[in-house]
Design a protein that fits this description.
With about 290 residues, the protein is of the alpha/beta class. It is built from twelve helices and eight strands.
Length: about 290
């Protein structure tokens, strides 16, 4: 795996990670995460896949830029794809990253072979249902309070010496409280959790990571504004029936909006359903 940076036409930096060789798959990491989330997909990468995981603006190595719509990231991705010589590729998006995967697929369906979106919110998203945090919708309506809360999270993530100490912090305990029974298996695995922690810490590499996270949550409060019919037959939407981070009703909402969606709900699975089914995702994408 190698992390790289390219300079965009407007002078900003775009950070990305390339891992493996084979069919190219553009990966959209979750909100409050980074390109390093690809580290969680090592078994996936070893199966004839070239994974390209990209930091969105403000995360990791990518320069912050305010985004007014979920489509604003598309131009950065097209520049990267052209830089890498990719005319066609597949996409994979997890959690909040699924929103941006859908935004790209609908606007540039001619470049997409197939796409899998897992555990993604339907827009407009009711944030009070996420992570077992009913007060979240009020925090987002008060930007100053939201910024203070996110800055506190950044301090907790960066001051800890690894995943174990982070999970003992306030935000770590909140994250665990929002997990399904199946998700707890992943979060109790020290090796898996260390990789997740690295990806979260990288999201806060720069102070602008706080604003990037707040921006994305604000974008999720708006309705979809996309050419929905453009991805008919190319899209698979997966969701765990017991997902507490992003409840399963979001998957049904996406399927109603995006014509021709192949919807699959996984019983007794949670937000981490993707990691239980990496072999199946490979078969879909290649």
């Amino acid at each position: 795996m190698s992390s790289q940076i390219i300079t965009l036409p407007d002078g900003r930096q775009l950070g990305y990670l390339v891992a493996g060789k084979g069919v190219p798959v553009l990966y959209f990491h979750g909100t409050a995460s980074s390109r390093l989330e690809a580290l969680l997909l090592k078994p996936f990468i070893n199966q004839n896949i070239q994974l390209i995981s990209v930091d969105r603006p403000g995360y990791g190595l990518s320069t912050y830029k305010p985004r007014k719509t979920i489509q604003d990231f598309n131009c950065d991705l097209n520049f990267l794809a052209d830089h890498l010589g990719l005319s066609h590729f597949s996409v994979l998006g997890w959690s909040g990253g699924g929103v941006f995967a859908l935004a790209y697929m609908t606007c540039f369906s001619q470049r997409i072979n197939r796409g899998v979106v897992v555990g993604a919110p339907n827009l407009p998203f009711d944030v009070s249902t996420a992570h077992n945090m009913p007060l979240a919708k009020y925090v987002l309506k008060l930007p100053l309070i939201g910024a203070l809360a996110m800055q506190n999270m950044r301090r907790q993530v960066l001051k800890t010496d690894g995943s174990a100490s982070f999970l003992r912090s306030t935000h770590g305990r909140q994250m665990l409280n929002g997990c399904s029974t199946r998700d707890e298996v992943f979060f109790s695995d020290p090796a898996w959790m260390d990789l997740m922690y690295q990806s979260m810490a990288e999201a806060f590499r720069q102070k602008d990571g706080v604003q990037a996270i707040l921006d994305e949550h604000q974008l999720f409060l708006n309705p979809w504004n996309l050419p929905f019919k453009e991805i008919s037959g190319k899209l698979w939407v997966w969701h765990g029936q017991e997902d507490k981070t992003c409840p399963v009703n979001n998957a049904y909402g996406i399927a109603r909006k995006f014509e021709g969606t192949n919807l699959e709900i996984f019983p007794k699975q949670g937000h981490c359903v993707m990691f239980d089914n990496l072999d199946r995702i490979v078969r879909l994408l290649i």
